[in-house]
Specification:
Blueprint lengths: L2 E2 L5 E3 L4 E3 L2 E2 H112 L2 H13 L7 E4 L4 H11 L10 E4 L8 E5 L2 E4 L2 H13 L1
Parallel strand pairs: 5-6
Antiparallel strand pairs: 1-4, 2-3, 5-7, 7-8
Helix pairs in contact: 1-4, 2-3
Length: 225
C-alpha cells in the first residue's frame, strides 16, 4: 500500500512528533463516493426539477384550458343570449302583428255583424210597423204629435200627408190642438209623394220627416254610429 508523509500531518508524541500515514486509495475512494453522492443528489435535483417543471406545465395547461373553456362558455352564453333576444324580439313582433291583425279582423267582423244586425232589425221593424199601420192609423197621430212638439215655437206649420190619410190627419190635428197650441193654426195638405201612414211637418224653423222609411234610416244611422 502506497503512502506519503506530509509535514503538517504529524502526531506529537511524548517527546518528538511522529509522522502519520496518508492513504491515497482511501482518499480516492472517498472522493469517488462523494462524487457519486453528488451525482445522485444532482440527479435527484434534476428529477425534482423535471417533476416540478411537468407539474407547472400541466397546471399551466389546465389553467389555460380552464381559461379558454371559460372564455368559450362566455362567448357561447353571449351568443345564445343574443340569439335568444333576437328570437324573443322576433316572436314579440310576430305576436304584436298577429294581435293587431286579429284586432283589426275582430273590429271589422264586429262592424259587419253590427251592420247586418241593424239592417235585420230595421227590416223586422219595418214589417211590424207596416202591419201596425195596416190595422191601425194611430201611428200617424203619434208621429204628427212628435213633430208638433219638436216645433212648439214654430209658425206657419204645414203637415203634408198622403191623400188617403188626409181626412184622418185632420181629425188628429183637431184633437192635438187641445194640448199643443200651434196645432190649432197648423194646416194639413195632401201630397201623393208622401208615403201612406207618414207625414212631413214643415215650418219657418225647418221640416221634420216623419215617414216610416225616413225614421228607420235615421235609426239605422244612429245604431251604426
Amino acid at each position: 500500500m502506497a503512502s506519503i508523509l506530509k509535514h503538517d500531518h504529524l502526531v506529537r508524541g511524548a517527546d518528538t512528533p511522529q509522522p502519520v500515514a496518508f492513504n491515497i486509495e482511501d482518499v480516492q475512494s472517498r472522493a469517488r463516493d462523494y462524487l457519486l453522492e453528488m451525482q445522485e443528489r444532482a440527479a435527484e435535483l434534476l428529477h425534482q426539477a423535471e417533476v416540478q417543471s411537468t407539474h407547472i406545465r400541466q397546471k399551466a395547461k389546465q389553467d389555460g384550458l380552464a381559461e379558454a373553456q371559460s372564455q368559450f362558455e362566455q362567448r357561447v352564453a353571449a351568443a345564445a343570449q343574443k340569439l335568444s333576444d333576437e328570437r324573443c324580439k322576433s316572436a314579440i313582433q310576430a305576436c304584436e302583428k298577429t294581435v293587431e291583425a286579429l284586432t283589426n279582423e275582430t273590429t271589422d267582423w264586429l262592424a259587419l255583424w253590427r251592420n247586418q244586425t241593424v239592417d235585420l232589425a230595421a227590416r223586422i221593424a219595418e214589417k211590424l210597423v207596416r202591419r201596425e199601420m195596416r190595422d191601425d192609423n194611430e201611428l200617424l197621430r203619434v208621429w204628427m204629435e212628435e213633430a208638433l212638439v219638436a216645433l212648439r215655437d214654430a209658425r206657419d206649420v204645414r203637415i203634408s200627408v198622403h191623400p188617403d190619410d188626409f181626412a184622418v190627419a185632420g181629425r188628429f190635428l183637431q184633437k192635438l190642438s187641445k194640448a199643443i197650441p200651434q196645432a190649432g193654426s197648423a194646416e194639413v195638405l195632401p201630397d201623393p209623394d208622401i208615403k201612406l201612414g207618414g207625414c212631413i211637418v214643415r215650418s219657418n224653423y225647418g221640416s221634420i220627416d216623419q215617414q216610416m222609411e225616413t225614421q228607420l234610416e235615421r235609426l239605422v244611422e244612429q245604431l251604426r254610429g
